[in-house]
Request: fold
Amino acid sequence: MGLPALEFSDCYLDSPQFRDRLKSHELELDKTNKFIKELIKDGKALIQALKNLSTAKRKFAESLNEFKFQCIGDAETDDEICIAKSLQEFAGVLQNLEDERTRMIENADDVLIMPLERFRKEQISAAKEAKKKYDKETEKYCAVLEKHLSLSAKKKEAHLHEADSQVDHVRQHFYEVSLEYVFKVQEVQERKMFDFVEPLLAFLQGLFTYYHHGYELAKDFNHFKTDLTISIQNTRNRFESTRSEVECLMRKMKENPHEHKSISHDTMEGYLFVQEKRSFVSTWVKHYCTYHREPKRVTMVLFDQKSGGKVGEEESFTLKSCTRRKTDSIEKRFCFDVEAVDRPGVITMQALSEEDRRLWMEAMDGREPVYNLNRDSQSEGLAQLDVVGFNVVKKFIYAVETRGIDEQGLYRIVGVNSRVQKLLGLAMDPKTCADVELDSTEWEIKTITSAIKYYLRMLPAPLMTYQYQRSFIKAAKLDNQEARITEIHSIIHRLPEKNRQMLDLLTKHLANVASHHQQNLMTVANLGVVFGPTLLRPQEETVAAIMDIKFQNIVVEILIENHERIFKDMPVPGGGQANLQLNLQPRRKSAESKAPSCSERPLTLFHTPTHTQKVEKRNSVVVNSTPEPQQLHPAQANAPHNNPSATRSSSTAAVNHNSSGSHGHSWTQRNSLTSTDGDQDGGLMARQNSQSRPNSLVPGRKARALYACKAEHISELSFIAGTIFENVHPSREPGWLEGILDGRKGLIPENYVEFL
Reply:
């Protein structure tokens, strides 16, 4: 049933029935207003969805257009040509269709949204304003009328006449407002029949135009579709006919691989495992090797078949001799030794089988081994702390400081192993040392720095000796920074004279490197990561020793930061750890004897700095890296490195046992500031320095806890995830912040909070 008509004459009566009829019109207007608002909202959502769909289809079309088919062979059939260009045809159709959709979307706002908004604002809003005015005049008229009727008849005639005139005026104005309101209400009810529906019709017409355009495109595309269908079917038929032939050949290869294996008399190639000697153990690295008989040239490429990518640079040398390795002289099978004309030392290689070794030896004109029982046992090329060693290190350091002190990633980026060994061999050979020109471009800075590290690793014992290794670690674990410096100062002067002199020479150089950290991005912390495991390597490689790597780094950091004091001044008598024990108690038990109490902390071997990195000199460059779970050593999974006590003393963002450049070690971390053989391009170098670091750690900032933590010392704070700390700022403890919680000031693990 429709709405009742509103008669103008009823405005004068203003009866209850008139008010009811007027009320029904008002309710209908409210309903229409809400519906239009929802329709506008849905229309905008539809337009946005169409835009998103159009963007996605355009991206899909771009992907199709960019892909190019590569067919097997040096020529293509007509069917293959048709199939190859099909993706571009598909992309063209989609782009054409989306162009029409874009035009429809651009018009949608003008033909749908704006007319509906205009109708709602200009018509329905005007009716609402008229209602407000009508209600206001109704109240005014009723109030004046009641006041007028309450006048006493005893009033003066003039006063009563004036009151009558006032009531008549108010009544007339009320009738006029009532008439205008009734007119407006009925006008809006009538206008919505066309002002409301017409925009919807225009929008649908745009949709129909778009779909019709798609229909026309489909008709135009039909011819190419037919050709493409035929080409696809032809290609499928040819595939089925040739597949059986390929399978037959494959079976023959499986049954008699040697008959079908192509062996050239001039070239031999295949995979060989090459022995690479390290400071602790020897590792076998897989290479793809090629030998050309005529120039006697051997080429080796480090290649990982699992990833299918080239890992290392290509190395080549001229073959001098090839000798089969006797079985009882090495624990590996199928081995043989080769010597090079232009490369010092013997290279031990392992073939994949006895037959494979025979083929390699035949190609290289190999011979059987001849052993000299009186031969001097070689020391595996170990370096010595002698005059030659000091001269070589001084020469290398001078070259680094004059040529590449500002080179980014100094000591972190490693050189090619073969080049490093060649440089060190020439420099330490009395016959050739004078001919080594480090000023020439022949020797890269990364090759020279890697040679320094390689020399230190090849010493019979670490520079800081096995004897004092544990003493240095204990000193680094002391609670007070001054106590650490004092104890390390004392131990340094107990080292053998040559060790102390070499350490003095090295740390003075490293201090100079660190002073240029804004250019080379090698802070004290980063240098500690690189040299800690080299200078303080343990006598036995155990899980416990690996857990102490971070403390080795701290020792090196202290040596660099306090070089003048430690090496130029004699330690105070009795100023070692014995006198410090009276007032310094370790804050924690060692990580080996106590499991972590904060079970909700992230399992990570090292502290990952956030934007709240310390504004300290030695932390002015920090790599923001998170270790991947699959990269962790098995021992890490159970090790209590998520305990803040184990990381309290660590001022670096990464702990890596391979940081000194050791090859083939399983502790390589992809994003740490560490010397690894795989990182030769410096691409993982820290991209920030102390100049560009934001001052994020300023007094008075608030921070929120990301994880729960239970304090294990009186100086620490216990908290749950979500706790808000006040006045958070850097502490003197690396890796820790100071903050206030419930009026109490204490230490907070830095990687447990985020700043607000």
User: Anything to note?
Assistant: Residues 371-381, 576-697 have pLDDT under 50 and may be disordered. The chain is about 50% helix and 10% strand. The longest strand covers residues 309-324. The radius of gyration is 43 Å.
